Amino acid sequence: MQDATPVEHSTGPDAALRDRLAGGPNALFVYGTLQFDAVLTHLLGRLPRSSPAAAPGWRAAALEGRVYPGLVPAPDATAPGLLLTDLSLTEWKILDAFEDDEYKLCQIPLASGAHGWAYIWREGEVRPETWNADDFAARHLPEFTALCAEVAPELTAAVTRSQP
């Protein structure tokens, strides 16, 4: 994997998840649906602080049969996105549960010289074209945000139950 430092991945309220986030990830690079204010607001109940960011050597790939992308190595590409910098541990857990086992949480270098954590697509179903945020917004955002609004209470409840 292109300059990525993985963290063991497991979802749910168990020790593996606590261990995965115990290293204190402090900045999350988002490149897909989590770039949209409405998605973050529905999932977290607020908009985290963010700044524009880019990940050289990666692209947000369109995925077969899915409206969201996966971050995959691409030596000649740069994935645009945002860097979320003020997530609480509870918010990290909510986003981790939202992303689930299809993604691996890894630290990647950013164009700024800093590093950020990102959810990297594990494998399979990657299309040759890059995911298009404008197309997603025009064709899928209302339905996707409604889905986020529906699952957010379940994610929050599961995370709250798992906290000591």
Give a quick rundown of the structure.
The chain has 164 residues and is of the alpha+beta class.
**Order of strands across the biggest sheet?**
2-4-3-7
**Strand content range:** 25-35%
The gross shape turns out to be: globular
H/E element sequence: EHEHEEHEEEHH
- What's the mean pLDDT score? 88
Q: Radius of gyration from the CA trace?
A: 15 Å
Q: Give the % helix.
A: 25-40%
How many distinct helices?
5
Report the span from N to C terminus: 34 Å
Number of DSSP strand runs: 7
Tell me about the largest β-sheet. 4 strands, antiparallel
Estimated structural class: alpha+beta
Q: Give the low-pLDDT segments.
A: 8-18
Describe this structure in words.
The protein has 164 residues and is α+β, with helices and mostly antiparallel strands. 34% of the residues lie in helices and 32% in strands. It has five helices and seven strands. It has helices spanning 15-22, 37-44, 89-99, 133-139, 141-162; strands at residues 5-6, 28-30, 50-63, 70-84, 103-109, 115-121, 126-130. It has a four-stranded antiparallel sheet with strand order 2-4-3-7, with no helix packed on it. A hairpin with a 6-residue loop joins strand 3 and strand 4. Helix 2 (37-44) packs parallel to helix 5 and helix 3 (89-99) packs across helix 5 (141-162). The radius of gyration is 15 Å and the shape is globular. The model is unreliable at 8-18 (pLDDT under 50).
